[in-house]
Specification:
- Pfam families: DUF2498.
- By secondary structure, this protein is an alpha+beta fold.
- It has one domain (6-81): Protein of unknown function (DUF2498) (GMP Synthetase, Chain A, domain 3, 2-Layer Sandwich), CATH 3.30.300.360.
- The chain has helices at 10-23, 59-76, and strands at 6-8, 35-39, 42-46, 79-81.
- It has a two-stranded parallel sheet with strand order 1-4. Strands 2-3 form a two-stranded antiparallel ribbon.
- The model has no long low-confidence stretch (mean pLDDT 95).
Length: 82
Amino acid sequence: MQKNTEAISRQALLEKANALIREHDDYFAGLEADDVIQQGEVLVFRGPYFLDDEGLPTAKTTAVFNVFKHLALTLSSRYHLA
């Protein structure tokens, strides 16, 4: 991937991501990243999105999106999947 980023295992990256999530201002119980993929130079994090019974976004969905975006911006500049 990028020559300026460090190779990291999926599990190690998820551990770092979940530590950052717990420190984020928008954190709430149950918010966590349970998967990550590499799309080009961007790390894309996945996890529960807290949709309502009809599959529509909730206030928690917006928080999850914002936190996962923060993870992508913060971690993609430092790491790539090994």
